C-alpha cells in the first residue's frame, strides 16, 4: 500500500513538473504574434523574469562549465552573458522598425552545467532543444562537436565559448574573434619582429585547444624558417616536469604555452628558476590574474606575455564601459567576463535582423546568421568583425599582445594593439588542430 | 650523473608527498580493513582550507598548514562517526564504495571554494632552488622530505610508545581480541580517520608548494594507490619506502623521457601504474604487506 502511494505521488510529481515546464518554458511554435513567424523557443508571453510586460520572450540555451576544469572560465562568462541580455532587455529588448512585437531574451531558464563533459553536453542539449531558439553559449570544442550534426540538421545557431579554428568553417557557429591558431601565428610573428627568435617550442595540452594553437605556431615557424617542435603536457601543476625538462634541454628562443593557468605558472616558474631566459607567450585563456600572486609571479612578469583576441576588461571602448557598468568590479575579475559579453553581440545582431524579417523561426535565424556581413561590437573588436557571409576567409585575424601588470584590472596591459602578422595575412583558412593531431 | 642525482632529489620530494598520503590509506586499512578512497577529497579540502587560512597573516604557512591539518582531521573524524561507523559489520566492499562517494562530495565542495581564480598556499620556498655542488634541488622538495621524515618518526613513535598507539596496533592485529581486552575499537577507527585526514592535508600543502591550485590539482593524491600496492596495504614502512620509490621513478621518467618514448607522451604519468600492475601480478601483497593465507 505504501509502495502504491509512493508511486502515485511520484507520478503526480512528474505530471505537475511537466505541466509547469509547458507553462513557463520556451514556446515551440505558438509563441509569436500574427506578424512574426516562430517555431521553437519563442513565446508571446513575457520572460519568467519580466523586464518588459508587453514583450514576448526568446529563449536561448546555455551549455557551460560551472563545476568542471573550465569552471574558472565558464562562471564569469555566463555571468557576463546574463548581464549583457539584462542590459538589452532593460533597453527595450529585441526590436525592429515596422514590427510591433518586441521580445526580451531569456538566457537563464535553459542554462545547464555540463561539467565539460561531451556526453552531458549532448544530453543536456537534447533536453533543452525543444524549448530554445538558439544557443547563447556552447563551451568546449569536443563538446560542441558532439552536438554540431544536430545543430546543422535543426538550424540551431550558437555563440561558441572558445576559439577553435573549427568554428570558422561551421556556418551555425558565430565565432567572434580570432582562433587559437591565428592568435599563435600572430604571436610568433610578433616574437620574430620583437625578439628576433630562431626557434619555437609549443608546450600544449592535448586536444583541439592545444593542437590548434601549436599548429598555428608551426605554420608561422615554417613561414619564417624557424626551428619548431612541440610537446604535449598533461593538466596539473605538479605534472609539468617533463615540459620544463624539454624547455631546458632545447633552449628555444620562444615557448608558446597553451595550457591552463596553473600549468603555465608551473612551467614558467620552473624553467626560470633553473636559469631559462627565453620568452614565453601564452595563448589567450592561459592567463589568470591570480598568477601574479603565485610563486611564479616574478618570472611571469619578466619572461611572459599573453596573447589576446580582444581588449582586456577595463579598456576604453563603449562595450567595455557597458560591461563594467553591468558587472561592476567582481572579486574574481578576469577576462572571462569580457569574452562572455563579446560573444553575445552577433546573436543580438542576428535576432534583430530576424525580427526585422518577421521570421524568428530557426531556419529564418540561420539564414540571417549566414548572411550577416558585419556586427556592431561597440568597439570591442575591429571594424569588419562579424562578416559571417564571407565564410572562413573573412573571419577576423587581428590579435593583441599584453604584458603582466599587477596594476591592471585583469593583470594585463596591452603592449601591442590589434595587428595581423604576415603569416596570418597569407594563411588559407583550414581546421588547424587536424594538422598536428 | 648530475641529471641522475637531480632526478633523484626531485623524486624524493615528490615521493615524500605520496608517502604521507599513502600513510593515511594504510592507517585506515590497518584499523578497519577498508581502503578509503576519500583520501584525495581530504587532500584537496586541506589544500583549499590552507589557502584561506594562510591569509591570516600571523598564522603563516606552517601555522595554516598545522591548523588545516587539525581541522581536516576533525572533519575526517566526524565523517567516520556519522557515515562510516554505522556501516560496521556491513561488507567491506560497501564501505569502500561509500568512501568513493565521500571523495566526490569533498572534492566538489572544495572545488567550489577554489572559484574562478587560482589559489596559493603561500609557502616560503616558491620556485627557489638549492645547489649542492652541481646538483640542483627545489627547496620545496627538500622541505617536503624533512617534514615527511619528522612526521613519519612522530607516527612511529606514537604507535610504538603511546597507549593509543598500542591500542591501534592491537586492533590492527585482531579486532575481537582487542575488544575483549577493553580496547575501544570505535576510538581507534575514529583516530585512524583523523590521522589520515590530517596527513592528507599536510601532504597536499607540500604538493601545492611552489605552484598554483585549481580544480585539476587533486589527481596528485591518486599516486598513493600504486604506492600502497607496492609497499603493501598494511605496511607503514612499506608506504614510506614505496612512496619514495614511486616519486623517484616518476622523476627519472621525466628526466630520461627520450629513452622512454616507446611509452608515448608523458611516460612519467603511467610508470607508477605499470609498477602497480607488475606488483599485483608478481607479488600482490606488495613488498612489505602481509601475505594472506586462505584455507581452501
Quick description:
The complex is a heterodimer of chains A (about 425) and B (about 300). Chain A has about 425 residues and is of the alpha/beta class. Chain A has helices spanning about 1-25, 70-90, 120-130, 140-155, 180-195, 210-225, 240-250, 260-275, 295-305, 320-325, 335-340, 345-355, 360-370, 420-425, 435, and strands spanning about 35-40, 40-45, 55-65, 95, 100-105, 110-115, 135-140, 160, 200-205, 225-230, 255-260, 280, 305-310, 360, 400-405, 410-420.
What is the CATH class designation of the largest domain in chain A?
Alpha Beta
How many beta strands in the DSSP annotation of chain B? 2
Summarize the amount of helix of chain B as a percent range. Answer: 55-70%
- Whole-number radius of gyration of chain B? 19 Å
Radius of gyration of chain A equals 23 Å
Query: How would you state the average pLDDT of chain B, rounded?
Result: 91
β-strand percent of chain B reads under 5%
- Domains counted in the coordinates of chain A: how many? 2
Q: Give me the CATH superfamily of the largest domain in chain A.
A: Response regulator
Shape of chain A: elongated
SS summary, helix count of chain B? 11
Sheet-strand content of chain A, in percent, reads 15-25%
How many helices of chain A does DSSP assign?
15
| Helix-strand sequence of chain B | HHHHEEHHHHHHH
Distance between the termini of chain B: 52 Å
Largest sheet of chain A: 7 strands, mixed
Strand order of the largest sheet of chain B: 1-2
**Unreliable stretches covering 5 or more consecutive residues of chain B:** none
Question: pLDDT average of chain A, as an integer?
Answer: 89
Amino acid at each position: 500500500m505504501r509502495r502504491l502511494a509512493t508511486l502515485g505521488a511520484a507520478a503526480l510529481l512528474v505530471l505537475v513538473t511537466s505541466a509547469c515546464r509547458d507553462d513557463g518554458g520556451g514556446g515551440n511554435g505558438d509563441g509569436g504574434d500574427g506578424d512574426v513567424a516562430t517555431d521553437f523557443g519563442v513565446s508571446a508571453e513575457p520572460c519568467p523574469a519580466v523586464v518588459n510586460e508587453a514583450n514576448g520572450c526568446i529563449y536561448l540555451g546555455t551549455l557551460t562549465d560551472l563545476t568542471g576544469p573550465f569552471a574558472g572560465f565558464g562562471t564569469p562568462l555566463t555571468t557576463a552573458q546574463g548581464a549583457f541580455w539584462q542590459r538589452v532587455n532593460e533597453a527595450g529588448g529585441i526590436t525592429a522598425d515596422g514590427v510591433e512585437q518586441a521580445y526580451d531574451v531569456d538566457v537563464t531558464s535553459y542554462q545547464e552545467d555540463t561539467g565539460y563533459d561531451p556526453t552531458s553536453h549532448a544530453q543536456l542539449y537534447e533536453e533543452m532543444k525543444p524549448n530554445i531558439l538558439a544557443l547563447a553559449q556552447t563551451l568546449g570544442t569536443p563538446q560542441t562537436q558532439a552536438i554540431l550534426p544536430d545543430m546543422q540538421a535543426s538550424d540551431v545557431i550558437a555563440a561558441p565559448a572558445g576559439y577553435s579554428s573549427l568554428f570558422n568553417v561551421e556556418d551555425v557557429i558565430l565565432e567572434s574573434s580570432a582562433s587559437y591558431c591565428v592568435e599563435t601565428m600572430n604571436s610568433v610573428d610578433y616574437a620574430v619582429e620583437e625578439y628576433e627568435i630562431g626557434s619555437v617550442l609549443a608546450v600544449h595540452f592535448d586536444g583541439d585547444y592545444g593542437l590548434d594553437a601549436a599548429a598555428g605556431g608551426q605554420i608561422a615557424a615554417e613561414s619564417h624558417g624557424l626551428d619548431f617542435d612541440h610537446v604535449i603536457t598533461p593538466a596539473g601543476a605538479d605534472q609539468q616536469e617533463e615540459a620544463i625538462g624539454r624547455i631546458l634541454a632545447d633552449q628555444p628562443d620562444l615557448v608558446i604555452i597553451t595550457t591552463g593557468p596553473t600549468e603555465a605558472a608551473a612551467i614558467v616558474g620552473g624553467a626560470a628558476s633553473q636559469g631559462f631566459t627565453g620568452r614565453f607567450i601564452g595563448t589567450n585563456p592561459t592567463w589568470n590574474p591570480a598568477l601574479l600572486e603565485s610563486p611564479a609571479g616574478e618570472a611571469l612578469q619578466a619572461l611572459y606575455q599573453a596573447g589576446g583576441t580582444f581588449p582586456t576588461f577595463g579598456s576604453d571602448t563603449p562595450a567595455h564601459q557597458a560591461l563594467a557598468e553591468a558587472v561592476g568590479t567582481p572579486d574574481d575579475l578576469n577576462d572571462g567576463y569580457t569574452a562572455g559579453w563579446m560573444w553575445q553581440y552577433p546573436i543580438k545582431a542576428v535576432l534583430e535582423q530576424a525580427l526585422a524579417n518577421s521570421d524568428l523561426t530557426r531556419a529564418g535565424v540561420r539564414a540571417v546568421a549566414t548572411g550577416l556581413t558585419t556586427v556592431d561590437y561597440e568597439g570591442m573588436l575591429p571594424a569588419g568583425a562579424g562578416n559571417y557571409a564571407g565564410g572562413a576567409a573573412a573571419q577576423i585575424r587581428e590579435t593583441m599582445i599584453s604584458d603582466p601588470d599587477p596594476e591592471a584590472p585583469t593583470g594585463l596591459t596591452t603592449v601591442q594593439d590589434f595587428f595581423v602578422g604576415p603569416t596570418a595575412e597569407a594563411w588559407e583558412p583550414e581546421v588547424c588542430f587536424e594538422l598536428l593531431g | 650523473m648530475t641529471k641522475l642525482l637531480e632526478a633523484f632529489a626531485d623524486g624524493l620530494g615528490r615521493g615524500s608527498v605520496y608517502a604521507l598520503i599513502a600513510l593515511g590509506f594504510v592507517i585506515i586499512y590497518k584499523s578497519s580493513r577498508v581502503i578509503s578512497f576519500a583520501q584525495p577529497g581530504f587532500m584537496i579540502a586541506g589544500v583549499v582550507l590552507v589557502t584561506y587560512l594562510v591569509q591570516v597573516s600571523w598564522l603563516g604557512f606552517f601555522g595554516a598548514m598545522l591548523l588545516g591539518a587539525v581541522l581536516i582531521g576533525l572533519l575526517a573524524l566526524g565523517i567516520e562517526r556519522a557515515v562510516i561507523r554505522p556501516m560496521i559489520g556491513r561488507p567491506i566492499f560497501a564501505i569502500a564504495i561509500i568512501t568513493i562517494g565521500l571523495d566526490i562530495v569533498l572534492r566538489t565542495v572544495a572545488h567550489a571554494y577554489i572559484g574562478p581564480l587560482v589559489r596559493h598556499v603561500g609557502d616560503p620556498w616558491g620556485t627557489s632552488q638549492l645547489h649542492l655542488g652541481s646538483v640542483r634541488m627545489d627547496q620545496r622538495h627538500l622541505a617536503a622530505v624533512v617534514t615527511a621524515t619528522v612526521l613519519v618518526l612522530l607516527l612511529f613513535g606514537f604507535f610504538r610508545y603511546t597507549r593509543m598507539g598500542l591500542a591501534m596496533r592491537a586492533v590492527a592485529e585482531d579486532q575481537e581480541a582487542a575488544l575483549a581486552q577493553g580496547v575501544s575499537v570505535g576510538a581507534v577507527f575514529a583516530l585512524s580517520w583523523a590521522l589520515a585526514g590530517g596527513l592528507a592535508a599536510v601532504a597536499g600543502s607540500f604538493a601545492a608548494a611552489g605552484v598554483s591550485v585549481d580544480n585539476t590539482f587533486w589527481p596528485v593524491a591518486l599516486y598513493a594507490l600504486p604506492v600502497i600496492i607496492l609497499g603493501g596495504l598494511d605496511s607503514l614502512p612499506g608506504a614510506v619506502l614505496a612512496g619514495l620509490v614511486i616519486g623517484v621513478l616518476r622523476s627519472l621518467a621525466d628526466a630520461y623521457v627520450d629513452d622512454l618514448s616507446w611509452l608515448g607522451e608523458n611516460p612519467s604519468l603511467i610508470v607508477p601504474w605499470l609498477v602497480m600492475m607488475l606488483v599485483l601480478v608478481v607479488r600482490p601483497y606488495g613488498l612489505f604487506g602481509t601475505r594472506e593465507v586462505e584455507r581452501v
